[in-house]
Specification:
By secondary structure, the chain is of the alpha+beta class. It is about 30% helix and about 20% strand. The chain is built from 11 helices and 10 strands. The strands form 2 sheets. The protein has a 7-stranded mixed sheet. It has a 3-stranded antiparallel sheet with strand order 7-8-9. Strand 3 and strand 4 form a beta hairpin. Helix 1 packs antiparallel against helix 2 and helix 1 crosses helix 6. It is globular and about 55 Å long.
């Protein structure tokens, strides 16, 4: 049976006028942060620049003092480490910078084509109720545990389909390579009890799977800045193979900062 929360999310995905029903379902499920964020008055205005700013404490204690933008598109002038609550898929995302040394090492011509920011990465994996609600709304033929826990077991293709439905991609190797160097922030994004996650979908069943040990810098290496023999510049995937069973493997979404730069280039 589909849960009350998944049904409410499905109706909201189809018609944002059902926001009241979704808020009630989120409240019943004990998800206080999205309930509070969905009350912000400018959350769904058609103007792409509309939105409002709240303190990150609304998301959770770990994010206190950070700016959190609430709106249907990410802010164009956000500082690295800022948060964005996207009401489309009820997700909170973190603006991840590239390691400064890496960006500074690139030739000027490359810097002009790239940004100093990797982009926005969800602060947690996609939950079962989100995938179930999306499947009901879109007619996608997928099945996951319908609950508050991370949605696991989706194929790489289905995880990518979910992400693209909301205008996003999967959080991949470039994002996790940058997150690796953010210290405590990486630990907030991936709790100690967090299981493996998809790091990318290659195609035809081939996926990259990342485990926490490869994604989060050990505490005793917190000050080892770019010592490649101790801390690699990029996390290594736990495995890279053709798999049919991704039981226990979650996924999270991302939005590249390059997308906005490319759009500006086309407009100019």
């Amino acid at each position: 049976m589909v849960s009350e929360l998944s049904v409410a999310f499905a109706r909201y995905v189809v018609d944002h006028a059902e926001i009241g029903m979704l808020r009630r379902a989120l409240d019943h499920a004990g998800l206080s942060a999205p309930v509070a964020l969905l009350r912000e008055p400018s959350r769904l205005r058609a103007d792409a620049d509309a939105g409002c700013e709240v303190d990150g404490s609304t998301v959770g204690p770990a994010w206190t003092g950070r700016s959190c933008w609430v709106g249907t598109t990410p802010p164009g002038d956000a500082e690295p480490g800022s948060l964005w609550f996207d009401p489309a898929d009820i997700s909170v995302m973190l603006l991840v910078p590239r390691p400064a040394e890496e960006f500074a090492s690139w030739p000027a011509a490359v810097q002009e084509r790239m940004t100093a920011l990797v982009g926005w990465v969800a602060v947690g994996p996609v939950a079962g109720w989100q995938v179930t609600g999306w499947a009901v709304a879109s007619g996608a033929d997928v099945s996951v545990h319908d609950g508050l826990e991370p949605a696991t077991g989706l194929s790489g293709q289905d995880a990518l389909r979910f992400s693209r439905f909301f205008g996003k991609s999967l959080a991949g190797r470039v994002a996790w390579a940058a997150i690796y160097h953010l210290g405590d922030i990486a630990a907030h994004l991936w709790p100690v009890d967090g299981g493996p996650e998809l790091m990318g979908y290659v195609g035809e069943g081939e996926v990259l799977v990342l485990d926490r040990a490869s994604a989060v810098r050990p505490d005793d290496h917190a000050d080892d800045d770019y010592d490649d023999e101790v801390v690699p510049r990029a996390p290594n995937p736990g495995r890279y193979e053709e798999v049919e069973d991704l039981t226990g493997v979650a996924f999270r979404t991302a939005v590249s900062s390059q997308r906005d730069m490319l759009a500006r280039s086309v407009r100019s």
